Amino acid sequence: MAPTRSSQRVLGSTTAAAAATTAAVGAASSARRAMAAAGEAKAEAFAAPSVHRSSPGCLGPRGVAGSSARGQESAHFCGGQEAGTSATGTAAAAAIIAAGAALVKKGPKGRRAGNRRLVEVSQKAGFFGAIKDFLKGGSEDSDPPAKAAAEAPNRSRIVVSSAQQIGQPFCGAYEEQLIKSNGRPVFMKVGLPAGSQPIYLLYNQENQWAFTPHADGRADGWAFVSDAAEQPVDIQGSFSIWNMEAWVPDATLKVQSQVAAAAQQQAEAAVGGGIEGPDVAEEVQMEDPGEPVPLPDELEPLAQLHWRSHWQVSEKAIAEWAKPKIDLSNRPLPEHPGVKRGVLSNGLRYVLLRNAMPPGRFEAHIELHVGSIDEEPHEQGIAHMMEHVCFLGSRKREQLIGTGSRSNALTDFQHTIYHIHSPLTLEDGRDMYKPALEALNEIAFMPEMNVFRIEKERKAVLAEMQQVNDMEYRIETWTLSGLHETNKLGTQFPIGKEEQIKAWQQKDLRAFHDKWYYPGNATLYVVGDMTEDEMVAGIKKVFESTPARHQPEPGVATLDPVWGSKSADARSLFRRKIARHRPEQLHNFSVPMIGTTGTFTEAASFDPTSGEKPWHGPLRIFRNELLEGLQLNFYSKAPVRPLKNLEDIRHLIAVRVLIGVLQFRIVSRYSSNHAPVQIDHSDSFREGCAVTSITVNADPRDWRNALSCVVQEVRAICDYGVTESEMKRYMAAMLKDVEKGVAENETVPSEDHLNFIMTSDVFDHVVMHPEQSYKAFSEVAPMVDRECVNTVAKWMLGFLAYYGKAAAPPPTAIVVCTPTQVLEEHSGQLVPFSITEEEIVDLLLAVPDKSKEEALNQVDVPESLLKGQLDAFLAKQPVDAFDAWRATSRKEDPDTGIVQLMLPNGAKVNYVCTPNESQGTMRLLVPGGRSGEKPNELSSAVVGIRTISESGAVSDFSREQIELFAVSNLTSVHLDLNLEFSYVDASFAMGETGLVAALELLHLLFVEPRWELPAFIRAQQAYKAQAYAVQKSLEQSTSNRLMKMMYASDPRVTEAQVEDINKLNLATVKRAVAAQLRPQDLEINLVGDFDGQAHLKGAEVEGGLSTGKHREEETEEEVVMEVPAAARERRLHDLDEALWKYLGSIVPSEAEQAEINNAPVITHGESLSSVENRQRTAHLQDSDERAIANIGGGAPNRWGKGDSYHNEVMKSKSFSWDSPDSKVKDHPLYPSVCLLAMREVINTRLFSTMRDSLGLSYDSSFELSMHDRLEAGWFMCTVSSHPSRITEAVTAAKGVLQGVRKRPISDLELSTARRTLMRRHEADKQTNEYWITLLSHLQFNGNPKDISCVRDIDMMLQSITWRDVQNAYLTLLTDSDQLFVSVTTAGPGAGYVSGGAAQASVSTSTAPKELKTVD
What pTM value is reported for the model? Predict the structure, then answer.
């Protein structure tokens, strides 16, 4: 496959075309977040708004088809600045046997005798051959009866025997337990392997003796007999055993006392007639055991999903793969010509690719093929701690600090990665490639591992464990434990076990390093602006002398094959084949490999060759009172199909089309309620399998409707497939998206290329150049028909669509995350909420089918939204009206290429032409945002903007029509607002129709938006839900509390409040939005390849491949592609005309403009009566202990201007921006550059102090609000720690903030900050999003920004001195009586909020749930 830009995400949502992108295939590279360097802050636009996205709304495709329902997979990476955390407990072993069976009631319908030849049973009996695998998973103390048996060894025993193969798993000795079930004794099988799930023989609630994994008497199990015997040895009837299809009687299964069994054995031995398994089986086959017991007509609700899965036989659930018209399996995919691979003599593999984006830089990653699943039981977390010690203990890595390089590390389940991003040379000409490789060599193979570093990193890891253990992580680990109950992925997370981390000594780390850290178990990836020869020479010079250890034989450092699927875990996890055993990570697959009927891998936890089949995974319900919404997740795992030939591509295309169609169908059903759904099928490089996930997010009170809708649509697409028009629409969208990769290839950053190659290697996917990929997709697409897509639907979605059918594949796992309380709207009280397994099962079985006519009903998709509607406007214009306007209005800056226009209605336009991306980006800004809300109409703007999005309709077009129109034209529109502005973001395909489609939609959005009462109600509900969620979030509640203290009299800067939302009505929010979205106040910013530069590049390389080798030899000059002047002028003429026609024709609004200059004013800290009014502490009741603190105070905006109180303070201190007498002090960008550099310095000091020196916090940050329009601002410092140390951490963070006054910023600190900002600026210029932020506000009259603020960024960074930055620090209000502190702890105990140190608790069980304030 070919890589695409990781930044290629549509603003606000992902288009359905993006759902079909090839980037999601094989690598899932978006899940691997590259971590920021130590102390490095987030990317910051130099003159851009801080866009708030907490409440996005979209016009156009809302479904993020292909976005993982399991969230960011990197939540479990453990790295220098970002890592996983602990998860206690082991995977529950709820799935015992493939389809288990419900024990039935007594009565005439309970059992019916019948006949069936044993030879048929024996063919199925292979299912039990690996019962040891099904029984594994329980911890030693997971079952109280097991523990009780251990404490009472002298209990009576019985012996179970059977002459039939199907009864063999139950044979053996059983020991009486201390408990009883329904008045009768309970027996447990003895001699099972350690860790196995128990097998009980007991009398259950339905008056049946049963073999079951449960000791509580519930009516389920593997075998039963309806017999009222007081003791099992008195049972007279025959047991019936489930064989995956029916109940089969076993008349030979007997229960005897231990004495009787021994006597029988002796008697048989005396006559030489001992029963031998094969002979008995042969003899029994001559008998006729009768028909299998038919399934019951009436069944009780049961606790386990898997018992109900095989009650009905339905052939429509079977996926039958039709042969393609042309055999494509013998057509191999071409390898990327620029990717080079090799192996050093010591076993180190290397992978190289030349790429010049960003120019003059390179990426070097070394991957050690070891992770948490390689750890022994006493080593849980040692791989992660080793990463810390190796990385931060490297002196050569420390020497890279201040050179413009960034480095970090991460640990995952199956690998540890150290990476460096660096310039090729420094300003003084020094080479950086060799020093970077030397640092990686030292990190991986020659770490110091001194005791001081080990102790420091031990503290860091323990702090990290606290910091990342948020609700999202806990849900993720809970999900993984269900999804991977058959392997270590479900129990052995990278962060490890706290008690073990505290115990390891230097010798333990050295032993682990010696075992796994050697060249033969590592791969080096280098991608950058260098020739292949330069890369190889540097690698050999640095790494070839590193000793080869753990050689398979003398003089041999590697095992063949070095590449391919024959690594230790075949097609599971790409693990380097080494000279020692790696245990397989067995998967409980739900379905075979796509395109096959029974192809599993060596990583399957069952043996299909012996007749064994998948079994149902568990249904897990995660309950926590801090959760707000309900989420239902359905998972199915399959072996990965390596992308090696065109036939593999055919199946891939079918999957992408299916996801796009289904996502739209489901989401379109939710236009009348607020319950988003995500569908995904992708190869997970972390988990070594393909995972289908269906995630349903719902209001807990409406989960039945939400889930029913999803199941119904999934079943309909499996029953009836997709329509011809859907095929054409989504196939075209997918091909356009693949084509984007060709246009964007030379702008894909080296880091994205590297990550894509690394993750593709996991499954042995062929890595193709984008042009090769596009050619392959184009050739195969015509061979993907509706039948192929429909078969893929049954294969991929049958586990949910046909749940309860015998032929349905079993779900791998079902995970439900639910709150324990919900808010009752009418009373405002919290009431208990619960959801049970039985309720979910009942609903899944009861959802009615859709009719074929209803399922295939199509929405009429308009070709144009404004066909003929602008004729009247154009007819009134003079013939030369456009040309005359353009001649007088248009300005183009020769240095930056920025074009500025003033449309006839007063709207202003800024645009720039860049070939960075194949799609265009547009942002329409109007001043206002939340600052434009009236005091008696708080939250009106935010709810109003959301109402337009919830409606999703304009003019006479329905939401479904608008969404399909957007899909067809690869267009997306997103509305949102922040404190200063309301804005509309749009993305569009560069071509004949993309821009016009976006402009038509925007025209109707301003002229004829649809204000609908149901949409308003949904918007209200969404923000009220968010308000309640904030109170339950440790991070959000802490920051919101800080803002309430700092701006006590101005609620516009805090989250929307429920009481304000309840006061609103449709007319109020409509009026609030109309006062802001006025056409005459618009500033329209566009970025795209409007002059055709990328098109010209594509024409130049047609017929050949560009492998990213942009940097020629030093003696040659770079060839700059220039678009012919006439062609460029024609293209820009058409662009200007489209803007004039579609946006310039909007009539100016007559609505009165909102009050936009009412800036918030920070509270006068020194005027407050006591410290309690500047500090609040709170506690959230939770199972795990965590703590976070926010420290804030006043600051200026981007242009150096603060609110009225800030001005008073600055005047009292005689502050002036002119004080350093800088030569660039008059530049409008001067305050902004100084503030950003100061932010970098403070972040570096925070990291050094809080983490390195004191070990108080794993994560700390310092941010500035940097407003563009309002003369107001603040700073916020965030620290996390253990509750017992959070006070100490706050004191230390205050010391850093206030210490800049005593310890001025140094030249070295500024130099490091300067390099960081310049590198970030250079890299970000390759994205449309960053250019949009540079263009924003260039024509806004409320600030000093002009084109020089775009042109002179590098010059300004080079010109400022440490005195300028030190002077900027004085604008922060950091005196003790000007600082505000918000601290929240989480853990056991009732919740409260208090001032200062007085922490009088208030029970959180009282309603409403909002935390009480204690005076």
Answer: 0.75
